[in-house]
Amino acid sequence: MTHDPDFVVPETEDFDSPHALFKELRGRCPVAWAEEMGGFWAVTKHEDICRVLTDWKTFTTTVQNVVPRVATTQRRPPLHLDPPGNIPYRNAILRFLSPARIEGWKPMVRAMVAEHLDRYIAQGKGDICEDFSFVLPIALLAAFFRLNPKDAEEIRRVGAEFNMALQRQDFDMLRERSDALYAIAARLIEDRKANPQDPDQDPVSNLLAVRVDGEALPDDKILGALRQFLLVGIIAPTTFIGSMAIHLARHPEHHAELTERPDLVPVALEELLRLYTPYRGFARTARHDVELGGKTIRAGDPLAVVFTSGNRDEAVFPEADTYRLDRGETDLVTFGRGPHMCPGAPLARLLLAETLEQLTQKTARLTLTAEPEMTRWPEYGPLSVHLVLTPR
Ligand code: HEM
């Protein structure tokens, strides 16, 4: 599993440099091999990303899900299973994310954003990631899974440590923190077995109630699914909120426009989700030799579907590096495509739109006071954004 390298993964990055690299790759070598992080193909064009994600018979999810490869022991459905094995687990969570359910979450999300944002704005300055965006998605997750405050706090701590270990590529720590998340998931399952809740209201009780051909789902797979659900929705909103803040600080005219016209928030959010797509390293593995983007991918080769790049592909988005609110319907890959497309997207959009609206209603200006600290693969976005906030 090695090829002549087409590019080198940079040791250090800033907020803009990944976009410059991906633009260069889209022009020169849209499917590009790198030796770093175990060796992988970076798939950078929108069309190729969609092909890899929809042709799951050729590109399986059962081997490696992110670049760099995180070697943990168990497969976690639904993301780690190809169809049809993924479907019962996916349906179990989808049920809680229908448009009617999301509508019901609105007042709660609004209050949750206000509680955390007002506290941060009152400080007058600080790191929006540490003081706000690390905390908010976990509060939402805790409510979504009806966690008790002790488990919610533990997930907040362990989730943050897991994220840090991933950023630093400290794989021993990563395994240890992953085990700690498994332990929380196992406790939650035991609790729901002992104290069953209404499966129509409680996602864990619903997973336990699923029957396929009359059989309950296997215990180890339920555990894996819950472990995945507990983390998957936390990381992207954390870095993405940091990216939104950097954009507003760099473009006070866009901030002012949203303050003046809160009705533009939904379309502005879509444009920001396009420009600063938080995932670049979700992965698939080729089952057999196949041609893609002029390259021969060998059986067993991992491919990273670089969403962060596909959303700036000039073939699909004219003036791709420019913030424009007149694009109309857009074909974003921010939330993936195909059988694993993010079921949490409506909830994520609700949380992020509420954040963008309240941030631009409650502040007149954001000023960056330090260079942001950046995440690494498999994410894109800042880990810290120090700001001075001018309240309205
Ligand atoms: C900005 C926020 C988010 C982004 C950008 C995002 C993005 C993604 C992407 C790209 C995938 C597909 C990965 C792949 O095909 O390999 C995915 C899967 C998934 N996401 Fe999200 N996500 C976000 C928030 C959330 C939230 C809030 C939840 C929970 C409610 C969630 C739950 C999931 C689950 C369960 C999967 C696996 C789905 C499956 O395999 O069928 N995500 N997400």
UniProtKB/TrEMBL annotation:
Metal-binding in keyword set:
yes
Q: Which UniProt keywords apply?
A: Heme, Iron, Metal-binding, Monooxygenase, Oxidoreductase
Asked if the record carries the keyword DNA damage, the reply is no
Which PROSITE patterns does the entry link to? CYTOCHROME_P450 (PS00086)
Q: What is this protein called?
A: Cytochrome P450
User: Which GO terms label this protein's molecular function in UniProt?
Assistant: heme binding; iron ion binding; monooxygenase activity; oxidoreductase activity, acting on paired donors, with incorporation or reduction of molecular oxygen
Organism classification: Bacteria, Pseudomonadati, Pseudomonadota, Alphaproteobacteria, Rhodobacterales
In which family does this protein belong, per the annotation?
A: Belongs to the cytochrome P450 family.
